[in-house]
Amino acid sequence: MQLATHSDADLVRLAQQGAESAFAVLVYRYAPAVRACVATHPEPVDAVVNTFLRAMRQQSDRDPDDPVAPWLMDLATRQVDDPAPVAVDDAPPMDPSELDEVWAALAPRWPNGRRPRYVPRWVWRTLAALAILTVLLALAVLVPYVAITTAAEEREPTERVIDEVVAEPYAEPVDRESASELYTPHGGSDGGPSLDFDIDDRGDRQEPSDADPNGDADPTADTDATGGDPGTGDGDDA
Fold it and tell me: Domain boundary at 109, 136, 163, which?
């Protein structure tokens, strides 16, 4: 069953429960009578709108079984100084465009008759810009942090499994004293390899001496000192 066939009491009851369409049926049903009542108003359509706005504000407190027509006529007569109440059935029909205009003004203010809060467009644009700026700042902080954290994790050494450590070959450390005994300079008595330099306790290298590898002095040293012939060994006779 369509709402247009419902009684006034049913429509008021449904409107009190939040049914916007039920209140719209009441508007279309009684707007012509209200329009005839405020015919002397300079703006009769506005007067009709104001009448139903008052009804919208009061409908939650009304008893659904109370008559609707007298209630609306009483609200309409307050809009003009010289009202002309007429019977609902005797009211001339209202132009459909005016009916649509009345409901277009009432619908945005349902269900309490208050004006909807209008937020200027620049406010929404400002909020959108602030939201974008917040996201950009968050990314500017988060991206470097993630990059630094990832790089730090990559530099951390990985834990080695104990089996890998045990399987590695073992090499004994070399003792410096043992190394000095193995490599005796100038051909030691133990028959080991000979070196051209000595190894002291500090490990410093010494330049090779002028001595012959066999332990003899340089044969040219005496010749230079005496000025003699190396073949004769007598420098004074020459």
Answer: 109
The per-residue DSSP string of 124-164 comes to HHHHHHHHHHHHHHHHHHHHHHHHHHHHHHHHSPPPPPHHH
End-to-end CA distance of the chain: 157
The per-residue pLDDT for range 111-152, each reduced to its tens digit, is: 888 877 667 788 888 999 999 999 998 888 888 888 888 776
Domain count, the chain: 3
> Do 97 and 139 have their domain in common?
no
Residue 225 binned pLDDT confidence (cut-offs 50, 70, 90):
very low
Residue 112: its pLDDT value, please? Answer: 85
Looking at the structure, do residues 191 and 214 belong to the same domain, yes or no? yes
- Computed on alpha carbons and rounded to an integer, the radius of gyration of the chain in Å comes to 59
Q: How many Cβ atoms sit within 10 Å of the Cβ of residue 16?
A: 16
The span from the CA of 131 to the CA of 125, in Å, is 10
Does residue 193 sit within a domain?
Answer: yes
Range of the domain at 86: 3-109
Side chain identity at 7, as an amino acid letter? Answer: S
CB contact at 8 A, 19 and 58: no
Give the per-residue SS3 of 18-57.
CCHHHHHHHHHHHHHHHHHHCCCCCCHHHHHHHHHHHHHH
Q: Is the dihedral of CA 4, 9, 12, 16 positive or negative?
A: negative
**CB atoms near residue 96 (< 10 Å):** 9
Q: Which amino acid is at 230?
A: P
- pTM of the complete model: 0.51
81 with 33, same domain: the answer is: yes
